[in-house]
Model the fold of this input.
Amino acid sequence: MEKINVVAAVIVKDGQYLCVQRCRSHQSYNSERWEFPGGKVEKGESDYEALLREIKEEMDWDIYVGRRLGVITHDYPDFTINLKAYLCKPGDGDFTLLEHLDARWLPLDQLDTLNWAEADKKIVQIMHNS
Done:
């Protein structure tokens, strides 16, 4: 099974976290589910570089990457994801959703109200426990 290295930006502003909704896809287990923004780490790229690139590509936005919150490994039906989540702060200006259906800023105690992708659900659990 293919193993994919992915990074996620847990962006916090005024005590609220940015959650984005994936587009509809052929992968029913992830279609229209919520996630923290981010994406695949390309060959030769650091996690930091990947996060900055992915957020710029998906949201036309600059962020500040902070400490790592945790590492998740999750087996989906057709691949395994190795997901590293980083606490981040927003840069100046607003983002533009270029690859997501929706976005919401929610406090920690409301994150469980969303239908999360399974790997991202584990990040929410880490956040509740830290």
Observations:
- The two ends are 32 Å apart (CA to CA).
- The beta strands are 2-13, 16-22, 34-35, 38-40, 63-75, 79-90, 100-107.
- DSSP finds two helices and seven strands in the chain.
